[in-house]
Design a protein that fits this description.
- The chain is built from 9 helices and 4 strands; from the N terminus they run ββαββαααααααα.
- It is an alpha+beta fold.
- Helix 2 (99-108) crosses helix 4 and helix 5 packs across helix 7.
- It is globular.
């Protein structure tokens, strides 16, 4: 009697006929993402209470997220179970976000200007945990070496994250004050570098809620993941 058993087989290994000479029936399961590194998607971020983001999570968008392959990721297929002549496959998404990108982000959090900026943004209008997660996602897409990421790249990524997700664009202008003080002559250079950064990313600027949460789960005790708008007192939000 044929028995069902779990099996792991990469996509490069084609199903082989069994001993009877009949080919295996392949069942594809696309609903199980499987354990993977954080992955990038064209879907929007979760809307934080009390702060309106540009895009909400409609049922249609959630369905699109499940169906579409995320930019910057690769799908691999593995054999989940073998049962007689049936083989069940599941899709696993592998992300470009690596531990080194988390390390770069953590290193930059010690930068004195970045520390002052985060301390200033008490109501998290510019730097809540989701926007900061996007910084790591953008680092992974830009393709620079770890040692190349500096203070300017943190603020370029954070500015871009606000571009993508926030309706109120005024608070992000404070980034210029922390970077350049009252010197407005450097702002055109900032925007030139921002465009260059987006080009390095292949114009892939959207980040999914799932990726943000997986990025946070990589080091859940990192202090910036406590920057949750839902926990801000109403007096500060006002």
């Amino acid at each position: 009697m044929a028995s069902c058993q779990p099996s792991v087989q990469s996509e490069d290994q084609s199903p082989q006929p069994n001993s009877s000479g009949h080919p295996l029936e392949v069942i594809v399961d696309e609903e199980i993402p499987g354990p993977s590194a954080p992955w990038v998607d064209s879907s929007p971020l979760l809307q934080s209470p009390g702060q309106k983001r540009k895009r909400g999570w409609s049922a249609e968008e959630k369905e699109e997220e499940e169906e579409e392959t995320a930019p910057g990721t690769k799908d691999t297929w593995v054999v989940e179970t073998l049962c007689g002549l049936k083989m069940k496959l599941k899709r696993q998404r592998v992300s470009s976000v690596l531990p080194e990108h988390h390390e770069v982000f953590t290193r930059l959090l010690e930068d004195p200007v970045i520390k002052r900026f985060l301390a200033w943004d008490k109501n998290l209008r510019v730097s809540d945990k989701y926007l900061l997660s996007m910084v790591i996602a953008y680092f992974s897409r830009a393709g620079l070496f770890s040692w190349q990421y500096q203070r300017i790249h943190f603020f370029l990524a954070l500015y871009l994250a606000n571009d993508m997700e926030e309706d109120n664009q005024a608070p992000k202008q404070a980034i210029f004050s922390f970077l350049y003080g009252k010197n407005r002559s450097q702002r055109p250079l900032f925007h030139k570098l921002r465009l260059q950064f987006v080009r390095f990313m292949g114009w892939k600027t959207r980040v999914s809620q799932e990726e943000c949460e997986e990025i946070q789960a990589f080091d859940p005790d990192l202090w910036v993941w406590g920057r949750d708008r839902a926990l801000i007192p109403e007096t500060l939000e006002a």
